[in-house]
Amino acid sequence: MATEPARPPSPDPLFANEVIDLWADGSPNNGSNPDYRPRIRVTYPALWRDAYAGRRFPAVLICPGGGYHMQALHEGAPFAQLFAMHGIVGVVLTYRVHPDAWPCAYSDATRAMRYLRANAERYAIDPARVGIMGFSAGGHLASMVATQPDVYREPEDDLAGTVSARPDRVALAYPVISMTESAHTGSRDVLVGSSGDGELARLLSSHLHVSSDTPPSFLCHTADDPVVPVANSLLYATECTRHAVPVELHVYESGRHGVGMALDIPRLRGWTAALMEWFADWRLS
After folding, report:
1. Which residue positions in the chain have pLDDT lower than 70?
2. Percentage of the chain surpassing pLDDT 70?
């Protein structure tokens, strides 16, 4: 008997969003700040027609930045829509922030990755093409999942141990990478604490954990970023080359931190085109 072709939860959605809470009502994993209850918002490609029935889409989990204190709106939904326009399911993650420290946000991100793969049939996702993207502190979160997808398993996550959280690709925009050198002090203070626990700082420094198993990586930064030094991206890219991990690095001469799509900065606004070109072979064939 023929199986029903994969279809989205709602008919023919155009940038239609579905919100899924990652943890059950009453769970302590819902965090201290109700504005940042862990959840994902799924944006489907605007391609659902009979001609596309049965196709499987790639997906990218998007982690906005905000120093682990908040999450920047301009680094979420606009990028989900950008991915959707290119035939990729864009999924914006809301994760726990201060005062919730390590491993709260990491548990949210790995849970989200596992949820997407476990529900690949429902969302017509190709489980072999699930990536992650992050900005600033969200870039740190994405890089942690990319380099150490199983460093901590949340006991409440019933998918841990059976569904992989490892992304197939990772894209990092002006990311926080190191907690030991050229660190962003705001992110480090939330995760490591003002005492600067050396062992935890090393654990949370993603460049120290790049290996041959790290997924192909895309990085974008500005050379004079006044908040997160470009050294963070350089450290990560250097380790990728050392471990023969495919990496594409774009360093622009100048630009403020947190540019998002940089539509108001002529020299920078082309970076999203480079990003989409990097994902080009993931689009529908």
Report:
1. 1-16, 46-53, 194-196, 284-285
2. 90
Q: What residues does each domain of the chain span? A: 17-280
The sign of the dihedral angle between the CA atoms of 271, 68, 169, 218 is: positive
User: Letter for the amino acid at 129?
Assistant: R
CA distance readout (Å), 150 to 42, 106, 111, 113, 160: 24, 10, 11, 12, 9
Q: For domain 17-280, which architecture applies?
A: 3-Layer(aba) Sandwich (3.40)
Give alpha helix (H) positions in the chain: 77-85, 104-118, 137-147, 185-191, 198-203, 231-242, 271-278
Quick: pLDDT tens for 165-200. 999 999 999 999 999 888 788 798 888 876 567 899
DSSP 180-197: SSS--HHHHHHHTTTTT-
Q: What is the mean pLDDT of the chain?
A: 90
Compute CA distances 51 → 12, 69, 150, 153, 245, whole Å. 12, 44, 38, 40, 36
Is 168 in contact with 131 (CB distance < 8 Å)?
A: yes
Q: Which residues contact 9 (CB under 8 A, 6 or more apart)?
A: 18, 122, 123
